Amino acid sequence: MRTLTWDQEKQELRMIDQRQLPARLEIISCRSYQDVAEAIQNMTIRGAPAIGVAAAFGVVLAACKSKKTNLQDLQEEIQQAATIIISSRPTAVNLSWAVQRIMKIARQPFVMKQDLINSLVTEAQKMANEDIDTNKRIAEHGAGLIQDGDTIIHHCNTGALATVDWGTALGVIRLAHLQGKHLHVLVDETRPRFQGSRLTAWELEQYGISYEIICDNAAGYFLHTRQAQKVFFGADRVAANGDVANKVGSYMLALAAHANNIPVYSVFPTSTVDLNLENGDLIPIEERDSNEVLDIKAHDQPVAPIGAKARNPAFDITPNYLITGLVTEKGLVSPPFQQNLSRVIHE
Amino acid sequence: MRTLTWDQEKQELRMIDQRQLPARLEIISCRSYQDVAEAIQNMTIRGAPAIGVAAAFGVVLAACKSKKTNLQDLQEEIQQAATIIISSRPTAVNLSWAVQRIMKIARQPFVMKQDLINSLVTEAQKMANEDIDTNKRIAEHGAGLIQDGDTIIHHCNTGALATVDWGTALGVIRLAHLQGKHLHVLVDETRPRFQGSRLTAWELEQYGISYEIICDNAAGYFLHTRQAQKVFFGADRVAANGDVANKVGSYMLALAAHANNIPVYSVFPTSTVDLNLENGDLIPIEERDSNEVLDIKAHDQPVAPIGAKARNPAFDITPNYLITGLVTEKGLVSPPFQQNLSRVIHE
């Protein structure tokens, strides 16, 4: 089952409503490019590769549903729709990559409106199929990085749901599992929208891969105590220097892995690379509605599959080299703490 | 209003039920040492200094409610109660510090049972009052670290609710605010129990201090983009070398601050220091029920005060130096990414 499918007869794009998982597997239909832009914006569909292909079908829908008969008018209308679709989310570059790719078709000279539409459908279908092929090639390149017995910390969702099918980082893990390697995944829940505990855990259940859910802030504990050997996540945009924009929290996770000499892999199709941007600080960061953070009641459903397991360390250790000062009732204690703390206590 | 108060007439310990905040300010009564141990275990009361003083009153209750008339039998029963109270939570050393302190009184020779009880009550009350004095001294030592205009990232709750009154790290921030400094606090929500968004935000509302709630995993974004100038948190146990055990997530927060040359302060009374432990890796880390992570429905109330604001960046940037490899459909790209990524893309 694909995350999104095109129904040629009804001229609609069907997609899994990822907001309803893991409670319900519901399919919604987009019948206009506005529907697609809204589904991307409200995260009915998410994941850089998936929203890229969805956006391409959004352009298809703009053409199909247009009342324009004059080819030039139609192409102008498609161009306006493309601009709106691209603006639905700013960070993932796959969105504009996909729209630009299909707009190359849309701008070609056509005689008949139906020819233009047919060409757009063909191109969008090709992009959907290519996405799956690309993901499988990614998995072949990445699976060798995973050793038998590894525990992997994974952030957000990068599985079949984040793509047309198969997945990127989770696709690598999936292939390593199919190769017979014994794996365990510590699934970052991924606040505020719980894509880890809702979507990744749900996928891992389907694949029969062992996992436990952790709060994002607990990854440091598991890395420092050598309970994880690898970190994997996806990417929403990669700058020319290899800086990776990805779901919030990836940076802190990578810092914690790096501090403990644990390898970090970011997994993505090359359509995610933006060679126009020299470094990551130039990548626009979307800031979303604060209610995603504040309104926990909006999650009126379980945030994890039934029967999911979790790890819940209540504390962690901050090594002294990270601390500037210890403030006590006897004064501010500065490094070196080994000497100064004992002196202050015994004063 | 104190987080916990002793009612001498009714011989009960009253405490704010911190599980109900910010929806309801409810007071519960502990009438036995078992009630106190349970309130500590289920986090009706939490915060290292607060659970220390609560534990001392637990010992008081063990004495008050004992049916033993023989002094030696009574003292044995109190000792058993003390052991149970200490075992209610393992990480914060204040708990055993406080119980050991009051047990010094309990073990003294007494003639009358009532004399023993009176001495215990006096000692526990003294500890409660000392906690407030200590916190105010801590604040005086710490407030100078905060500059006018600072934005501070704060983890968990370290305010009046984490102590008998006033608070540790949040007490420092509170005093700096009273000194007229303009501050803003980015409040880590502190998964899984939301002590930041539920308790710290609620306290900041009372004090009139400007704040916004963030997901724990977003702190790195705000530090990297220079939207915060200081990091403050408390401590549950500090080893002799200055390693700090604190609420899970403190480590990743400190890593992110350190990577961006932003100072990190851990604030605590010296009763939190355990000079018997050479370093933090020797500190026992409590692992709590996984339902705290999985069962979001258990939060059948708002996780933030009404009208609370939040920041919600959806992505962050992982700098290339933290990344071991980029996995694409064209192969594994290794550092230096600046050259290798461009080469792979153009192949």
Topology at a glance:
Two copies of one chain form a homodimer.
Chain A: E1 4-7, E2 12-16, E3 27-30, H1 33-41, H2 48-65, H3 71-86, H4 93-106, H5 113-142, E4 151-154, H6 169-178, E5 184-188, H7 195-207, E6 211-214, H8 219-224, E7 230-233, E8 237-239, E9 244-247, H9 250-259, E10 264-267, E11 273-274, H10 291-294, E12 315-318, E13 325-328, E14 331-333, H11 337-346
Parallel strand pairs in A: 4-5, 4-7, 5-6, 7-10, 8-11
Antiparallel strand pairs in A: 1-2, 2-3, 8-9, 13-14
Helix pairs in contact in A: 1-2, 1-3, 2-3, 2-4, 2-5, 3-4, 4-5, 5-6
So what's the overall shape of chain A? elongated
* Share in helix of chain A: 40-55%
Distance between the termini of chain A: 69 Å
Query: Based on DSSP secondary structure assignment, what is the total number of beta strands of chain A?
Result: 14
Profile the largest sheet of chain A.
5 strands, parallel
Placed side by side, the strands forming the largest sheet of chain A appear as 6-5-4-7-10
Q: Gyration radius of chain A, to the nearest Å?
A: 23 Å
* Oligomeric category: homodimer
Number of helices of chain A: 11
Mean pLDDT of chain A: 96
Spans of at least 5 consecutive residues with low confidence of chain A: none
Helix-strand makeup class of chain A: alpha/beta
User: What percentage of the residues of chain A does DSSP assign to strands (E)?
Assistant: 15-25%
SSE run of chain A: EEEHHHHHEHEHEHEEEHEEHEEEH
User: Biggest interface in this structure?
Assistant: A-B, 117 and 117 residues
Word description of this protein:
Two copies of one chain form a homodimer. In chain A, a hairpin with a 4-residue loop joins strand 8 and strand 9. Chain A has helices at residues 33-41, 48-65, 71-86, 93-106, 113-142, 169-178, 195-207, 219-224, 250-259, 291-294, 337-346; strands at 4-7, 12-16, 27-30, 151-154, 184-188, 211-214, 230-233, 237-239, 244-247, 264-267, 273-274, 315-318, 325-328, 331-333. Helix content of chain A is 40%, strand content 16%. Chain A contains eleven helices and 14 strands. A five-stranded parallel beta sheet of chain A has the order 6-5-4-7-10, with helices on both faces. A three-stranded antiparallel beta sheet of chain A has the order 1-2-3. The termini of chain A are far apart. In chain A, helix 2 runs parallel beside helix 4 (93-106), helix 4 (93-106) packs antiparallel against helix 5 (113-142) and helix 5 packs across helix 6. The first copy, chain A, is of the alpha/beta class. Chains A and B meet through helix 5, strand 6, helix 8, strand 9 and helix 9 of A and helix 5, strand 6, helix 8, strand 9 and helix 9 of B. Strand 12 (315-318) of chain A pairs antiparallel with strand 9 of chain B, so a sheet runs across the interface.
